[in-house]
Amino acid sequence: MIQIKKLSKSFGKTKVLNQLSCQIDDNCIYGLVGANGAGKSTLLRILIGIYQKEAGSIQVDGKESFDDETVKQKMVFVPDDLYFPNNYTLLDYAQFYESFYPKFDKKRVRKLAEQLHLDLHTSLESFSKGMRRQCALICALATNAQYYLFDETFDGLDPVVRNFMKKQLANQMSQQKMTIIMTSHNLRELEDICDHLGLLYQGGILFESEIDQLKTNMYKVQISFKEAFDETKFKDFHLLSYKKNGSVATLILQDEEQTAKKKLKAMHPLLLDFLPLTLEEVFIYEMEVLGYAFENILSA
Amino acid sequence: MHLKTFFQPKYFYQNLKKSKAILVLFLFLFPLILALSHLTNLVNGVVDFFSNNLFGNIMMFVYPITLSFLLFSFVFQKRKVDFMMSLPLSRKQIFITNTITGIFVILMTFILYICFLFLFAAFGHQMISFSYLVTYLLYMILGSLFLFLLTNLAISLAGNFLTTLVLILLLLLFFPVNTFLYRVMMTEPHRMVVFNDTTIKVKNYDDCEAYLGIKDCQKQQKNGTYYTDLQKGISTTHSIPIQNIVNLERYPAQIPSGIFLKTFLLLFVFFFLGVFAFQKRKMEHCETSFASFHLHSFVKSLTIVPIFFLLFLLDVSFQHIWLALLIIAAYFFLYDFITRKKVTHFALSLAYFGITFLFCLGCFQFLKYHLEKKMLPSSDSILETLHVEEITGLQFSFASSDAFNVLRGYDLSNITFQNKKIIKKFLSYAFSIPTSATYRETYAYTLLLKNGTYYRGYLYLASEDWQALKKMLQESQEFQDYLSVQGKQILTLSSNNQHYRLQELTTSLSSIQKVLKGKEYPIATNGTETLTVTLYRDQQHALETVYVPYQEAPNLANELLKKNNQHLQDILKTKKILSITTIENRTLRNTKIDSKNFEKMVSYIKNQDAIDVRQKYLKFYVTIDNDEMYDYYTNDFNLLKDFPILTQE
Predict the structure, then answer these.
(1) DSSP one-letter string for B119-187
(2) Which of A35, B199, B251, B300 is 20 to 30 A off residue A251, Cα-Cα?
(3) Which residues in A have their CB inside 8 Å of a CB on B?
(4) Given an 8 Å threshold on Cβ–Cβ distance, is B88 in contact with A72?
(5) Comparison of pLDDT for A13 and B268, the residue scoring more
(6) How distant is the Cα of B359 from the closest Cα of chain A, in angstroms?
(7) Domain coordinates of chain B in residue numbers?
(8) Per-residue pLDDT tens for B340-394?
């Protein structure tokens, strides 16, 4: 478990992280979302010990993490901008990681490389950007570490590889205790992978929740009536949003779905459609509840 | 505490693997070129490691600095920082393992250098003085490690490549340059010093009257004091790399005794500071000079301190100082642009510039005031009184001389006379002799004081006065100790046209001393052919050198050769001869005697008498069982019949 308490970090006069606190439980995939410069990468770099914190504490399994090689051995970090030593092949790269991670599984590297059609003996410099990212991910997975920190690693992967990696993560999670923290500035990149989401804004976690919980208690309804109507017609509901276009209104409700359906049907609408919400929409309405304009939070 | 807390063997291996291509190039190219450069730099047939070795001097700087950048330059690139610092290693482990990798590579380089050196020397027949080689290796290894650790520290402190270079220069040169400028300021020619000791009897000293007038001078002389003009200075011991720079101007290269200890101690200082700085390093600042603008400005200001001091020292005129200040100010802002890629905090920069200028001016004025206070304001004032008891050492050197036959080579310049009686005797004697209008040479002497300062004076003596003074000094224990060399020395006998040449190892000075007894050939006349006989204490220091006029040379040479051949015969008769090679004769190339003729030749050599060098001779290189090599001469040209291979051109 990773516990972060009142973590602060500045770059010059810019406060990047400000009294950030959060808890990341074991066996979860934690998605960190935020605009460019929100502090996502900085948080990961502090977690792995690249940057030093200014204030606060980070405890990994109850142990202060900074510059402790035993704690760092439980973690692996894949940054957004990858580096590979000159003339290294995938095999060299795997051997490099193997030196530092005792549980490193070289067979798995060979297997995954074969599945992804990556040649083990070709210089990584001759690979495309996406292929190099796959190599980094393969080696990271083969470390069998307990904590995986992915900084925008899945952004830009093609859907096939992305799906493949997602399956690999799921398989590995079913076999061993592991926690993944991944960042993105794009919610769509995270929604199908993560089970927990945190929104970084102005150096702190503005909002965090389990994705299933977010999606289950919120839904979109399109409704129309013979007679003219307005927002007051739905005063008995927990209405998060109300928009009317012509005679059709779009409602975002946060009520128990079956009860809400019954109540709405009893109003004899001409049109009644229950639609699922995208994660981005869920976030938008949650933020609106909190009094923030989501567009401002996720735009750099 | 576990060793792995500091050092990670797997990371060490990966470090070498990561840079294998460049390391292989370094590990073979550098030792190979260095060995070749040394083997072509011979003095009397013996490899001279220190002098005239530009490649070695340059590589002492370039090699360790490049190596350090190779291992640590990841800190200057964000993606490399991410890669390296996310590995399960602590910062201490990364720094120490990288440092050990560098030390390992440097040591390997010099091991390979020794291999190349001996391999090539075996084929080329160059002689290598073992003790000299050990000194050189210690000098090069410590110098290289010094620069490697200094660069590691600079990289740990700075945020980009250019600032690291500035820091390396600052760490390396700031103190020596400022000490040099300070020394220049503190060195005052023509300062008057009063030596005060009742045991010294001054017979005559002309300048005393010039300073004090006849009456006062006579009065003072009765009190046992005497006066002289001396140059005051401050002694400093450099680190090896700085001494390396200083030695570029000197022949032979000087290796002061304290240099190894100072460099060795500084290695530890740089190492521990490096570990601390690397642990505290802000890795996010990997493309700018420093995280703090104030630290950046402080370092920037330090770079101009020597320039300001130099300007003040040169006493630049008012108009020129404005121009100079303008140029320095431009540099000040240009520095920002180069190292930070932007010019910000204009007012703060200006403030730093002003403060640095005022600080330097203040220091300079303080030193100037300090000096002026001690300056001799008029002829009847006394500048400084120095008690003889304060003097801890006396040294000699040549001030202007191209010959060293009178002073017996470099011998006296390597001796520090510490005996109080000798020092008093010297002072009393030296100042009682009037300056000779017909002096032949100028001799400089230096009086060392406990506090690191020294006073340097000059003697303008006639030959006979110098001989008398020399005799007095040679009776001292220090001189006798210096001459009583344990082990073997190198004797060189050579003439201008290379007709006579002998390199021989002797066990004592006695052979040359016996030959030279009663003969004095003190002056080498330019243009006349002479025979030079030099006995070296070791590779660097000559003990005895005599120039013998050509007419007398063959006799003397033969006499010496007889002595040495006898010595050689003694050795060759008792030792096993391993190989015999002909070398460097005008008619013969380097040829090893083959096995068929070897025993015949050994038998011949063991029964051969001394030769007359006036005749044309054959020269052989003889290697005996403890790997020592000897030159062997013979004029028995019948050998050519027995060994037809020798006739090959």
Answers:
(1) HHHHHHT-B--HHHHHHHHHHHHHHHHHHHHHHHHHHHH-SSHHHHHHHHHHHHHHHHHHHHHHHHHH-
(2) A35
(3) 11-12, 45, 48-52, 67-70, 72-73, 75-77, 79, 81-83, 85-87, 92, 96, 99-101
(4) yes
(5) B268
(6) 29
(7) 3-157+257-286, 191-235+383-483, 303-374, 489-647
(8) 777 788 888 888 888 888 888 888 888 777 766 655 444 434 456 677 778 888 8
